[in-house]
Design goal:
heterodimer, A: alpha/beta, Rossmann fold, 6-stranded mixed β-sheet, 20 helices, 20 strands, B: mainly alpha, MetI-like fold, two-stranded antiparallel ribbon, 12 helices, ABC transporter permease (chain B)
Chain lengths: 544, 328
């Protein structure tokens, strides 16, 4: 193979005292021109560090290349001078990142940030640089390039920022583009567009793309070849079709098995008993305006407009939608973390919306929430046992009884009882989410509202947490409102789905029916944008 | 929309917002002084040695002090609207003349202090952050720690002892050499010469503060994602530091400086008394003990206006540094 890039026996050393001596060990990877190589792995697999090593962007001096070579068209990138490395960066190898907001300098216009690439790598007059920047922005399908050039990053949407990043990375027609989870922070429909754009640009420029991702759906959509990494080792490489449909390594197989299938699970009989009814819930956020029209233009965001939901006993109702659709607002209004403007929230026939603080307290126990970010939602200074026992104690339970209950719950969510006296930071993300679930369950709620409970977790952990939630729902006869942006997760967890957009429920129905025969155009677009929709992970693995 | 017209709108908006603030300050000042025991007539009568109650009542009627409070307030507001701050009985001069006379000295001291503190603070912080964990960083950090911990008045006295008395480089007190009758540039140089020690004294503490803030801010910004992007573009470390990181790192320093202008006026009372600098601080000190309420009110008002004005300027500077500010 005529390789553009040949990584041989790459070892990246971690500082002494780390969990393992090498972040990446004996990695061998090749990248040919006009090829997309996907490096897949969970967090901590070393995939991002491998990409950074190519660019000489390791956080030196603590993390460094200890052994091996990175051969880029005959040059060893681990041995070249800093000056040469700077020359290569941005002109021959360039990179795009995960978070398009933080990856662009907030106080510099897009035009100047693109201009820098030209100024540092090519001698050309200012006029030509400006024309090239405009052409680039048009190439990545940004509307009105002349305006974008003068805009600051915060004035663009996430997808537009990522397009601008891609324009910047492709400014000098690099031979290699490294994309480090470029679509992870984006909505599915935007993700689909950006993936399409990367493919299009790659084909037009014959670029070799090293694409880092954790998402097998994305891999199925974009990869020519795949390399799977686990704990710093490349465990499997091969053409995409082979790896995806006939994985050899046990780890690859287990990873794929953990990817939720897009085929909804069989429907269960629906109970007649209504637990929670939301009728005409409306919540509007206002900002700006004032000062005789001199302030920022008034922004009125209808986060929830006339939302009506119906949750039966033992049922899981999924609310799906993209960022800004109002799904989290609805969840927070139901739990009374936010106050809705109007509508009814009937829990066992009692309307929670108008209740004052004290009147709400006895009802709080009946409806509990599990939050998205397991790192931010537990108080770092409070011991795990206390976090769980606090709720029942506030509701009047005796301290000893609450402690016994907390210990029991730790067992139920699959944690060791010794966790009781530890602090949250001693646990991994998945374990923390288990603590979050135990905390919610301590109050013996009837309704559990889970706001993106697995979106911050790796697939294998995600799988475990989803199983745990399922198990608990069965055991305690819970009803659940499950907020998610991920249709794969929704397909596996929810009995019914409510699809939200711009604060409105555009479609509602049994999961299987919504998947099989979507009525609303937006639902169709969402389903269409799911990465790797033609690839059936469950089927391939099961078939082996 | 055009960034320029948005900036104009922003400035106009901030100006409008300042109006109710100034009004509130005036009203609060007025009531604050009403809380104090005794009035100007008590003081005048006390100094005269003997005064009949009839004479005091006559005096009160003359100054309008016998009117009910709301009437006095309206009268006061009306006077202020016509730039009449009242009459200082102690100095036997209109308050406005007195205050304006001292205003220049205070503004001069304040501006030079802010420029010195922010300018050198930013520079030292930058030097410390770029040479992280080298002798340069250590030396700057130790300097900042010592100056941060030393009391203002003591620094002032020590500077006088060393540079004025022992070395004789700078004058000990005052704002200019009045006996020399300097004019034009000579006078400017003379005032600048007198300005050196008070400015250094007043700015040292803030200098230390901004040095530490700038160093921390630079280090925080250097770890941000956009720095990695800049590096991935192939920029030199120098350009990354000075073009990308510096502007972002300045933001907290500018915010802090804006907040501390008020404290600076308070701090200047000490420095003005140590160096006999004829500013508002000194005047306020005298007015307080003489119970010259009109004068005190005038000083309060002027310093409050000064703080509002400086904050306005800081906000405008901030909005040019950070384009995100216009939106929120």
């Amino acid at each position: 193979m005529n390789a553009l890039l040949d990584i041989r026996d790459l070892h990246i050393a971690l500082p002494e005292g780390s969990q393992r001596p090498y972040a990446v060990e004996a990695a061998d990877l090749q990248l040919a021109p006009n090829e997309i190589l996907c490096v897949v792995g969970e967090s901590g697999s070393g995939k991002s560090l491998t990409a950074r090593a190519l660019m000489g962007l390791l956080p030196k001096p603590h993390v460094r290349v200890a052994k091996g070579a990175i051969d880029f068209l005959g040059e060893d990138l681990t041995a070249v001078s800093d000056a040469r490395l700077r020359q290569i960066r941005g002109s021959e190898i360039s990179m795009i990142f995960q978070e398009p907001m933080t990856a662009l300098n907030p106080v510099m216009t897009i035009g100047r940030q693109i201009d820098e690439v030209f100024r540092f790598h090519a001698k050309m007059p200012g006029r030509e640089r400006r024309d090239r920047a405009l052409a680039l922005l048009a190439d990545v399908h940004l509307p009105n390039p002349a305006q974008i050039v003068r805009a600051y990053p915060h004035e663009l949407s996430g997808g537009q920022r990522q397009r601008a990043m891609i324009a910047m990375a492709l400014a000098l027609d690099p031979k290699i583009l490294i994309a480090d989870e470029p679509t992870t922070a984006l909505d599915v429909t935007t993700q689909a567009q950006i993936l399409k754009l990367i493919k299009e640009m790659q084909a037009a420029h014959n670029t070799g793309v090293l694409f880092i991702t954790h998402d097998f759906g994305v891999v199925a959509d974009i990869a020519d070849r795949v390399a799977v990494m686990q704990n710093g080792l490349v465990v499997e490489t091969g053409p995409a079709a082979e790896v995806l449909n006939a994985p050899q390594h046990a780890y690859t197989k287990s990873l794929m098995a953990a990817v939720p299938s897009l085929t909804p699970r069989p429907a269960r009989p629906r109970s007649e008993e209504r637990v929670l009814e939301v009728k005409g819930l409306t919540k509007t956020y206002r900002g700006g305006g004032g000062f005789f029209g001199l302030g920022a233009p008034a922004r009125i965001v209808k986060a929830a407009a006339d939302v009506t939901l119906d949750l039966r006993r033992g049922e899981t109702l999924g609310i799906v939608g993209e960022s800004g659709s109002g799904k989290s607002t609805v969840a927070r209004c139901i739990v009374r973390l936010n106050d809705a403007d109007s509508g009814e929230i009937l829990l066992d026939g009692v309307d929670l919306r108008p209740l004052a603080r004290a009147a709400m307290r006895p009802h709080r126990a009946k409806i509990q929430m599990v939050f998205q970010d397991p790192y931010a939602s537990l108080n770092p200074r409070t011991r795990v046992g206390r976090i769980i026992a606090q709720g029942p104690m506030i509701q009047g339970m005796d301290a000893a009884e609450a402690e016994a209950k907390a210990r029991e719950l730790l067992g139920i969510v699959g944690l060791d009882e010794r966790a009781y006296d530890r602090f949250p930071h001693e646990f991994s993300g998945g374990q923390r989410q288990r603590i979050g679930v135990a905390r919610a369950l301590a109050l013996e709620p009837e309704v559990l509202v889970a706001d993106e409970p697995v979106s911050a977790l790796d697939v294998s952990i995600q799988d475990q947490i989803l199983k745990l939630l399922d198990e608990i729902r069965e055991r305690m006869n819970l009803s659940m409102v499950f907020i998610t942006h991920d249709l794969r997760v929704a397909a596996q967890v929810c009995d019914r789905l409510a699809v939200m957009r711009y604060g409105k429920v555009v479609e509602e129905g049994p999961t299987a029916a919504v998947f099989a025969d979507p009525q609303d155009d937006y639902t169709k677009a969402l389903l269409d944008a799911v990465p790797g929709k033609s690839w059936l992970p469950g089927a391939t693995v099961a078939a082996q | 929309m055009d960034h320029f017209t948005r900036r104009i709108r922003y400035v106009l908006k901030r100006l409008l917002q300042a109006v109710p603030i100034v009004l509130a300050i005036i009203v609060m000042n007025f009531f604050l002084l009403q809380l104090a025991e005794g009035d100007a007539v008590d003081v005048l009568a006390g100094e005269a040695g003997s005064a009949t109650p009839e004479y005091m009542a006559e005096l009160r009627a003359k100054f309008g002090l016998d009117q009910p409070l709301p009437v006095q307030l309206v009268l006061y507001l009306k006077n202020i609207a016509s730039f009449d701050l009242g009459y200082s009985f102690r100095h036997e001069m209109p308050v406005l003349d007195l205050v304006l006379d001292r205003f220049f000295a205070t503004v001069l001291l304040m501006v030079s202090t802010i420029l010195l503190a922010v300018g050198f603070g930013v520079l030292l912080g930058l030097l410390a952050a770029t040479g992280l964990n080298t002798w340069r960083d250590t030396a700057i950090s130790i300097f900042a720690l010592i100056t941060y911990a030393t009391p203002l008045f003591w620094v002032g006295l020590m500077l006088i002892v060393v540079f004025s008395l022992t070395l004789g480089w700078f004058p000990t007190s005052g704002m200019e050499n009045i006996a020399a009758f300097h004019e034009g540039w000579d006078r400017v140089v003379d005032i600048a010469h007198h300005l050196v020690l008070p400015t250094i004294t007043l700015s040292l503490f803030y200098l230390a503060l901004y040095t530490r803030l700038m160093r921390a801010s630079m280090l925080e910004q250097a770890g941000q994602d956009y720095v990695t992007t800049a590096r991935a573009k192939g920029l030199t470390e120098r350009r990354i530091m000075f073009v990308h990181v510096l502007r972002n790192a300045l933001l907290p320093v500018v915010t802090m400086a804006g907040v501390q202008v008020g404290a600076l006026i308070g701090g200047s009372v000490i420095v003005e008394s140590v160096f006999a600098w004829p500013g508002l601080g000194m005047l306020a000190f005298e007015a307080l003990f003489a119970r010259d309420l009109n004068l005190l009110l005038g000083i309060f008002l002027l310093s409050a206006l000064l703080v509002v004005a400086v904050n306005l300027v800081v906000d405008i500077i901030y909005s040019t540094l950070d384009p995100r500010i216009e939106v929120s």
